[in-house]
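Dear colleagues,

As part of the handover before I leave the project, I'm documenting each prediction I ran so the next person doesn't have to rerun anything. This entry is a single chain, and its sequence is reproduced below.
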Amino acid sequence: MIHILFVVPYPQLEPVVQEVYRNHPMRDTIDIQFCAMTVDMVKNYQVEDMYDVIVGRNFTLTELKRQYPGRPVIGIPVAKYDVVRAVCEAKLRYRPEKIGIIGNFYSKEDDDYIGKIAGCQLEYYAAETREDLRDCVRQARREGCDCLLGGYSASLYLQKDPIHFVLIQASRETVGKVFDEAIHIAQGIQREQERAEMFRTIAQTVARGIIYVGKNRQVQLANKEAKKYFPNLKGDILSQAIPMMGGDLETCFATGAELLNRLIQIDSLAISANFLPVSVDKNMSGVVIDFENVSKIQQVETQIRQKMSEKGLTARYTFQDIIHESQIMDQVIENARRYAGVSSNVLIVGETGTGKELFAQSIHNQSSRKNSGFVAVNCAALPENLLESELFGYEEGAFTGSRKGGKMGLFELAHRGTLFLDEISEISMSLQSKLLRVLQEREVRRIGGDRVIAIDVRIIAATNKNLKELVREGKFRKDLLYRLDVLKIYVPPLRRRRQDIMILLHYYLEKCSQEFGCEVPVLTDEAKRAAESYEFDGNVRELRNVAERLCVIYPGMRLSARQMADMFCTDDVDDNEWEKSGDPEEEQVIVQREEKERQYIGEILRKNGYSRNDTARELGIDRSTLWRKMKKYGL
């Protein structure tokens, strides 16, 4: 709500003001008070603080500005239109030959123009104060004026010295413009008050101490946090109150440059302070000092790490999520549970797709670190320089394209938690050296930084390669291997725990059918035997892919051995049309695939007493195709 006080010298103006108020589009947000007072009355009147804007006229306006220099006071102007109306009224009522205009609101240059319109002579007599009115009236009489125009103060004076007089009144148009100006000023003041209150609230509620020092080096503002450490700051010369800050303050004033992260020792208190210059129109008006107790820095960083953990750096799986029936997996899980009870580093080895990260997350969730972050990174997915910055973090400006303010590394994010390094065998020798140092010293230094950050992190690494063989080949550091290989878990492939194949296949079929909104395929005994005899080079990951294909292609259908075999043994081109690529690794894959197919066809042949018709029917292929494959594999 906007509160406006109209202080005017004559009551006839109130109906005009009220009419303008009633028709104003913002009337619901305006509160108007009208007060008719002469200048003498204003001198003895106390205006309340509730008003956003005070409106006055002529000598009343002058007195209000004198009494309230810090308050917004605006005037109701005497518009040329209002003067013309008063001149016309005088002509109609008194038919004067010469009209005198008395006051402090008019310009003599307008006399001739308005006089020509009115058809009479005009003369302006300037009265800067009320005391000037008597002299103006006498001069007007001497110069032959037979009618006077002016404000309310002039009308009161002329009651003692009668002469034809017309009061110059404010029109609705003039009052409307005053309304708009008053609202505009009030809104601007309210916005500034809101901004000031916002900044005051921010300064008082931030966790850091804030001090503002003016050009005279006096403390002009100190928030609650600053007063906790320095109770008698406001109004003091800073160098006297806190001598240890004086040098950095003078440097900031002299250079106009920011001074950041200044470590200041004040008796037993250590603070980290920033000195930030404040400039208005390129002229320094003061310096803002924000500071924090150094002992809180570790606590703040821990809270940041916790927030980052809440954004997804968490472990979802537990040992209950590891689906199995085999005894060999029972033993692996039992060992992993024991490992979860200590904080030693763990190395998980196993072929691709066996579920190494599943074990890593399960160990974390059963350990004493479960309430802190689980941070995982695939070492093979990032180039060396990017992996280094991800692991150790970097300071602002450490390299081209670095984030403003720097970035916290994964070691810091995993503080008091677990860092999972997948495919650890893929990191370079130079990065292995840096990783080894972190594991030895339990501290990191960000790229481009000079500060050492202590960390408490448990490392779980995983690989699908033989690290000892890589050590012999000079591709992996021996000392790093033994830093990682404290506790070891070997996750066996599916071919070594075939009794887990069907329970896993049923699990993923159910899961995929729910995800795709389809019926679960029905596995016949022949389809089950086909699945159990398959090698699954991709282990659980490949099995899950097979389950997805079955749900998409055969929803709700009974699966034959032929249909199951289609999921395993299909090629992109006919066997006879396959051309060797010349790539030894690719050719080795082809050889392995053909050997599996040879073993599978041989098993079906023996099962069917070498009957080609029955074998071709179970495999879901023509007799001619079976004959070609038997010839190819020497069956």
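Residues 80-169 form a domain with the Rossmann fold fold (CATH 3.40.50.10660). The chain has 26 helices and 24 strands.

All the best with the project,
I.
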